[in-house]
Design goal:
The chain is α/β, with parallel strands linked by helices. Helices cover 45% and strands 9% of the residues. Strands 1, 2, 3, 4, 5 and 6 form a six-stranded mixed β-sheet that branches. Helix 2 runs antiparallel to helix 10 and helix 4 crosses helix 7. The protein is globular. The two termini are 27 Å apart.
Length: 290
Amino acid sequence: MKIVNILKQVGILAIVGIGFTSCDNDNKLKDSIFNIEEKEGNDTDKWIEKNFREPYNIRATYRWNQAFGYYDKTLYPPNVDNVIPALSMVKKLWIDSYTDVGGEDFIKSIAPRELHLIGSYNRNNDGTIVLGEAGGGARISLFNVDYVKSDNRESITQFVHTVQHEYVHILNQSKPYDKVAWSKISDGGLYTSSWYLYKDPESNELGFVTSYARSNYDEDIAETASVVLLKSKAEWTEFLANIKSEKARQDILKKVDLVVEYYKEQYEIDFWELRDRAEVHTTEVVNGNF
């Protein structure tokens, strides 16, 4: 699961009422994203079939499906017009980057079998926002699809961060990382279920790339890998330079070394080359080339 902390950033949350008009004079449901009955695919469905299902055996769904749960949340499906742009970003930054470095069959062999898009933010009572969830490595749910700005690097990387993060979990489930070596870097007492009470800069000074990385070892490696993949070389250099504690900086670098080692030994992937390809693809998306 990928969560961000907004507790100290948002004072008042606006509750927006969404109205839907979907019935004709015969009171029959029209072509709605809430209608999950089988029907002939529209242009969006055909695009998904061509770009995700056929080449990678990955389903991408966006219509509302109550079977996925979220009974205690106020959520809604994405605007259909936002589906292809969002999935295009995911394909560009995640699939294309891994394909460039790991080969055509890498994503085909190891991947979630479904991406489920939700238009709204998934807010928790503790002030955090869930950006994405993974269901046993089989499905990744992506929230806030209607709020991604394709010309804004920060917005793009925050959205794709979810996929990069959850994909590290999937890789770890397929081939485990060295948890013993990882546990020797940061003191166990630094990990906490109350990570959301700390701002990222505070956690950086303790040897973590984000506060969410302090949840546990598994989230730490997923955050470490995904944060590096989403930062440019210049951004990563600046990030490290802003950390005042030398020990914290070295702890983060040790974790990155373990990530690099893991990708090389378990998957024969050059992690730094993967990061470089992700940076190229991010720039392309920002420039509208996706």
